[in-house]
Amino acid sequence: MADRPTLSLDEALKSYISILKEGERREAQIEISRFIRWCGRDRPLSDLKPPEIGTYAEEFGGASTVDTKRLEPVRKFLRHLYKNG
Fold it and tell me: How far apart are CA 44 and CA 40, in angstroms?
């Protein structure tokens, strides 16, 4: 069985954004792009580790409801990637 090619985080974002409803795209793209810039845009998706995601959430999630809400598009993106392999 051949290995599936590994997407970069940027490629994964483009694929994910294309399936969102038009009204969700702008906010999702802004927040997920921020996360991807922090991780490294050309970084292979397979290199992303859970502790790094936690560090990002701690640094950018903040304590307020508004800050926490900003992480929701990133959570949905990561959940989508996990569910779709």
Answer: 9
> Residue 14: pLDDT above 80?
yes
Q: How confident is the model over 16-37, as a mean pLDDT?
A: 91
Q: Which structure tokens are listed for 64?
A: 């307020």
Asked whether the beta carbons of 55 and 65 are under 8 A apart, the reply is no
Quote the CA–CA distance of 41 and 22 in Å, as a whole number: 23
Residue 2 pLDDT > 70: no
Element (H, E) at 50: helix 50-61
Q: Are 29 and 10 in contact (CB under 8 A)?
A: no
Distant-in-sequence, close-in-space partners of 70: CB < 8 Å, separation ≥ 6: 31, 60, 61, 62
CA 50 to chain centre: 12
- pTM for this prediction: 0.81
Round to whole Å and give the CA distance between 83 and 70: 21
